Structure formats: C-alpha cells, structure tokens
C-alpha cells in the first residue's frame, strides 16, 4: 500500500510512462495506414482513454498493472506481420526514449542542488519515478510472452512451423504470464530481476551513469 506522498509521485509517473507507451503504438499504427486507433480515440497523450480500471487498481495492490491495449486491425496494414512488429516495438522504444529525455533533466538536477526546496525535491522524485517506470515498463513489455509486445516481435523471426505453434498459445498468454509471476514470487526465483530489471539497469547506467533501482 502506498502513502499519500508516494501516490503523488508514483501515479503521475506511471500515467506518463503508460500514456507515452500506448500513444506510440497508436501513432505508428496510424502512420502505417491503420485508422483504428484514431477512430477509437487512442491517438492522444491524454491518459484517460488509455487507462484500464482493473489494471490501474492492480498497480496499487500488487505493483503490476496494465493499460488498455491499443486496437489495431491488421487488415489495413500492407505487410501485417512486419508492421505489427513495428507497432509492438514502438511502445518499449518510446519508453526508452522517454527515459533518455528524463535522464537529461535528472542530470541537470544532479548538477544544480535544486533538491533543497520541497517543490523541487518533489519534482526531482517525480522525474526519477517516471525514469525508473519507463525503463522497467520497456523491458517488461519486451518479454516474448503474449500479449506483451515482445511476442509480436518474436513471431517475426520464428520459422513457419514454430510461428503457428506459438500463435496457438496466444489466447492463453495472459494466464501464462500471470503463472510465471506467481511462481517466481512463490518460489523466490529472480526471473523478472534477470529478464526485466537487469537490462533496465544496464541501460540506466548508460543513460544516467547509475541505476537508482
């Protein structure tokens, strides 16, 4: 459970990271010829259309949540498989770009001791939260498990037979992901520490010179 101070830091950070992520999906889909995100009013940086109420609630209780998936219709795409991979990659890539931009702001904070003031201290922590959430969100979504973005990217490189078998498990991807989270937590296996936080820290060291998580 979060106290009010953490809420004021965490909520804006996750909203920014999730909104940028979903907007990137919608933007690339629109540029590739699919009007579905625009018609669904998802081509926006307004966070409200992107919020999934249940996913948002889960963030506060289990610290794992999700946004509404951006609707995409492959019928409008010239090369459905490759274009779907591009749309999928846009989400994590946008979060890494966001983290890069925020890292510049954080370096300015480090160079000038603004944090002596309560308002600037809050802003620093807000930017830091956005930075951390963006990197973690990027690498979490790159996991090759449906319905995460990584699954759309992986399909592009699989042989035809494996591709068909992989697509057969797609309807059960959410349960597979939930099962992995549960098993790793129950058995204390650092699965997500290795697959998500480790690469996020590596990128953080490149961007900021340190990994504050």
Model description:
The chain has 213 residues and is mostly helical. Helices cover 68% and strands 0% of the residues. It has one domain. It has helices at 4-31, 36-39, 53-61, 80-111, 118-141, 149-155, 160-168, 173-186, 191-208. α1 (4-31) crosses α5 (118-141) and α4 crosses α6 (149-155). The chain is globular and about 60 Å long. The mean pLDDT is 89.
Order of helices and strands: HHHHHHHHH
Low-confidence stretches: none
Kindly estimate the percentage of residues that lie in beta strands according to DSSP.
Answer: under 5%
Total tally of structural domains: 1
Tally of contiguous helical segments: 9
Looking at the structure, what is the overall shape? globular
How is the main sheet built?
none
| Helical amount | 55-70%
Question: Rg from C-alpha positions?
Answer: 18 Å
Structural class: mainly alpha
Mean pLDDT: 89
Terminal Cα span: 19 Å
Oligomer: single chain
State the total count of DSSP E strands.
0
Task: Tag the structure with descriptive keywords.
213 residues; mainly alpha; 9 helices; 0% strand; globular
Itemize the secondary structure elements and their pairings:
Elements: H1 4-31, H2 36-39, H3 53-61, H4 80-111, H5 118-141, H6 149-155, H7 160-168, H8 173-186, H9 191-208
Summarize the structure.
By secondary structure, the chain is mainly α.
């Amino acid at each position: 459970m979060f106290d009010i101070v953490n809420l004021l830091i965490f909520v804006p950070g996750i909203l920014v990271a999730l909104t940028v992520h979903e907007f990137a999906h919608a933007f690339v889909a629109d540029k590739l010829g699919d009007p579905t995100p625009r018609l669904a009013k998802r081509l926006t940086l307004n966070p409200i259309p992107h919020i999934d109420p249940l996913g948002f609630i889960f963030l506060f209780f289990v610290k794992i949540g999700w946004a509404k998936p951006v609707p995409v219709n492959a019928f409008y795409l010239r090369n459905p498989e490759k274009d779907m991979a591009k749309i999928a990659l846009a989400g994590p890539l946008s979060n890494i770009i966001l983290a890069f931009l925020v890292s510049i702001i954080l370096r300015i904070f480090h160079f000038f001791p603004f944090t002596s003031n309560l308002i600037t201290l809050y802003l620093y922590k807000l930017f830091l939260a956005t930075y951390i959430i963006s990197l973690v969100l990027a690498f979490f979504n790159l996991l090759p498990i449906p319905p995460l973005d990584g699954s759309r990217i992986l399909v592009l490189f699989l042989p035809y037979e494996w591709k068909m078998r992989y697509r057969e498990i797609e309807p059960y991807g959410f349960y597979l992901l939930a099962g992995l989270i549960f098993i790793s937590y129950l058995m204390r296996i650092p699965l997500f520490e290795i697959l998500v936080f480790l690469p996020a820290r590596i990128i953080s060291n490149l961007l900021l010179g340190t990994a504050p998580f």
